[in-house]
Structures are given as structure tokens and as C-alpha cells.
Design brief:
Blueprint lengths: L14 H15 L4 H10 L6 E4 L3 H10 L8 E4 H4 L6 H10 L8 E4 L2 H9 L3 E4 L3 H15 L1
Parallel strand pairs: 1-2, 3-4
Length: 147
């Protein structure tokens, strides 16, 4: 592709470089905050816990291998595998069906307000994640009626 002034905007990449970039992208998805992982796992004492991630299909298996704690959640859904990505309502419906639950039974937590708005539009409670303390407060409010 050429810019109007004639400069080339992109160059073909060698297949080895493409694979290197793909592996680097997988690695970036695989970095997690161990304190949050422990916190999320502790929530299973009070509620079912599911993960809905917009991770691409070709990354999902590598992510599951790199993060064995995911196998201890009640449900894990990757957009690349379920063919629906947040904020598409189909992604949320997948989770409600998988957990045999009504949307009103969910507290959806995400760091993107547009995803939380989409979950709320389907009847879920929603919380925009800004930190663990704020999440803990939201859960204390939500859990008494759902735990």
C-alpha cells in the first residue's frame, strides 16, 4: 500500500516474523495479576465465576495452557471460540445459556464501559472495573441477594 506521496506504508512480512509476532501477542494476553487471580478464585466460595474474554481463537488454547487456574472457573468463554465478541449480545447470551441462568443472576465486570452497558441492556448488573477495592465493594452489595 502506498501513501499519496508515494511512501510505502507496509511491507510484506516473512512467515517467521508473522509467527514471532503472533507468539508475542499470545504472551501479552497471558500476563495476569496473580493477586487478582487469587481474588477471583476466592469468589467461588460465594458465587459461580465465569470468564468472557475477547481473546482470538488461535490464542485461546495457548492461554488455557498458560493459565491452569482457568480450569477451576465455572465457565470460560473466548470470543474466538464462541464466535461472538463483547459487546455483541450473543456473547453474553452464550454465558447465560452455559450457566443455565437468567441475565438478572449475573454481575458482569469489565474494564470497558461499552461492554458493561451491553450487559446491562440484557438485564445483567454491571460494574466497570477500576480496581480490586471498588470491585470488592460492588460484590458486597450484589452478593447478599445472589450468593
Amino acid at each position: 500500500m502506498r501513501h499519496p506521496d508515494g511512501r510505502q506504508l507496509s511491507l510484506p512480512a516473512h512467515p517467521d516474523r508473522i509467527e514471532e509476532l503472533r507468539l508475542a501477542d499470545i504472551d501479552s494476553w497471558s500476563r495476569v495479576d496473580d493477586r487478582m487471580v487469587a481474588y477471583v478464585q476466592s469468589l467461588r466460595d460465594s458465587a459461580e465465576v465465569a470468564l468472557l474474554s475477547n481473546i482470538p481463537a488461535d490464542h485461546a488454547d495457548a492461554f488455557l495452557t498458560a493459565q491452569p487456574w482457568l480450569h477451576h472457573l465455572d465457565h470460560v468463554a473466548f470470543s474466538g471460540k464462541i464466535r461472538a465478541a463483547k459487546p455483541d449480545p450473543a456473547a453474553f447470551r452464550h454465558c447465560t445459556a452455559a450457566l443455565h441462568a437468567d441475565p438478572t443472576d449475573f454481575l458482569f465486570v469489565d474494564d470497558r464501559a461499552e461492554n458493561v452497558r451491553a450487559a446491562r441492556s440484557l438485564g445483567m448488573k454491571g460494574h466497570v472495573f477500576t480496581g480490586r477495592d471498588e470491585l470488592a465493594a460492588a460484590l458486597r452489595t450484589w452478593l447478599p441477594s445472589h450468593g
